[in-house]
Design goal:
Blueprint lengths: L1 E9 L8 E12 L2 E15 L9 H6 L1 E8 L6 E4 L14 E16 L2 E18 L2 E13 L2 E2 L4 E3 L4 E8 L5 H5 L4 E13 L5 E12 L1 H11 L12 E12 L2 E11 L2 E10 L2 E10 L2 E8 L2 E5 L3 H8 L16
Antiparallel strand pairs: 1-2, 2-3, 3-4, 4-6, 5-6, 6-7, 7-8, 7-9, 8-11, 10-12, 11-12, 12-13, 13-14, 14-15, 15-16, 16-17, 17-18, 18-19
Length: 330
């Protein structure tokens, strides 16, 4: 919903073919959540004449051309409550945004129902994220590039887009503890990607990954190695770089063909998390030490005997046709 100053200028009423819509200093809600009271929206649209009775939505969309630009009152972006966007984001139940303020801006160009190009920029500092009730605080930057695609499909090519988390810290730690630890970062570049709009949105992508260190993988391993009194793989390696297939949807995250490398470190595998339950196979090596980790229905098992051989016989993920593990329903 949108509330605020609204100006509409249309063409001839008997053949609507052009219109300009300007929204100034509007208030926007996403469901019951407050998003912004700083929206400025300019739409210059042309619509091919269509029957006013019994017209299909797809017929109307196919005749739409024009540009859409949204910005703020004093900058290129309008101020937003980032937490209000959480219901739209993929991966609910895995990672959520609980608070934070930022700026959102962008530009879209449409020609006869085809999105010719577009860009969306979201920048937010001191955002609070939450994973399994564990808060993380840091800076978020999303720069989405939209390639040519038909609007009516609701599916958009976002290849070339980037997602950055910087200066991530655990707000539960004291200032003295945080000063002893370098802030963590994770940068994702979508080499290929398709975003499907909905509530939540869905993402199917091939991603290049850069991380400050292997902390997330180490944390995942420690969840089971501590319990099994096996600690030799818990060292944290710096300068992690690699690739993976990343799918997000309602309540699930799927990582396939994971290949991460760092300072004498190799991490391979796949992992699917649905409603907080993990399934997957991981091989991790640090120097001469190596191990395999199996997740089945949330239960973890460490493999230390010939772990690479074990992994090579187990590594196929459900999405790649492996029948040894439950297939995710997407």
């Amino acid at each position: 919903s949108v509330r605020g100053g609204l100006t509409v200028v249309l063409g001839k009423s008997n053949a609507i073919n052009r219109g300009t819509v300007r929204v100034a200093s509007a208030t926007v809600l996403v469901g019951p959540a407050f998003l912004t009271d700083d929206l400025r929206l300019d739409v210059d649209v042309r619509v091919k004449p269509f029957p006013t009775v019994c017209s299909e939505v797809s017929e109307i969309i196919a005749g739409v051309s024009g540009t859409l630009t949204f910005s703020g009152g004093e900058s290129n972006g309008f101020s937003v409550n980032v937490a209000a966007l959480d219901p739209l984001l993929p991966g609910q139940g895995v990672l959520s945004i609980t608070s934070g303020a930022g700026e959102l801006g962008g530009h879209l160009e449409v020609r006869e129902g085809i999105l010719e190009s577009g860009r969306l920029d979201l920048v937010a500092d001191d955002v609070v994220l939450e994973h399994q009730e564990i808060p993380l605080q840091g800076d978020l930057a999303v720069h989405a590039e939209f390639a040519k695609r038909a609007l009516e499909t609701g599916r958009f090519d976002v290849s070339g887009s980037t997602f950055r988390l910087d200066d991530i810290v655990d707000p539960q730690k004291s200032t003295a503890q945080q000063e002893r630890i370098d802030p963590w970062f994770c940068h994702l570049e979508f080499e290929e990607g398709t975003l499907t709009f909905g509530e939540p949105m869905e993402l199917d992508s091939r991603v290049r990954v850069k991380m400050h260190d292997s902390w997330p993988v180490v944390a995942l391993l420690r969840n089971f190695t501590n319990r099994l009194k096996w600690l030799s793989m818990t060292r944290n390696a710096k300068k992690i770089d690699g690739t993976m297939d990343l799918d997000f949807g309602k309540g699930f995250v799927a990582v396939d063909d994971l290949r991460l490398f760092g300072e004498n470190v190799e991490i391979l595998g796949w992992i699917h998390i649905r409603d907080g339950i993990k399934n997957g196979r991981i091989f991790a090596r640090h120097g001469v030490r190596a191990a395999g980790v199996a997740f089945d229905g949330g239960e973890g098992k460490i493999v230390t005997f010939r772990p690479r051989h074990w992994f090579d016989t187990q590594q196929g993920s459900p999405s790649n046709g492996d029948q040894s593990a439950p297939r995710e329903s997407r």
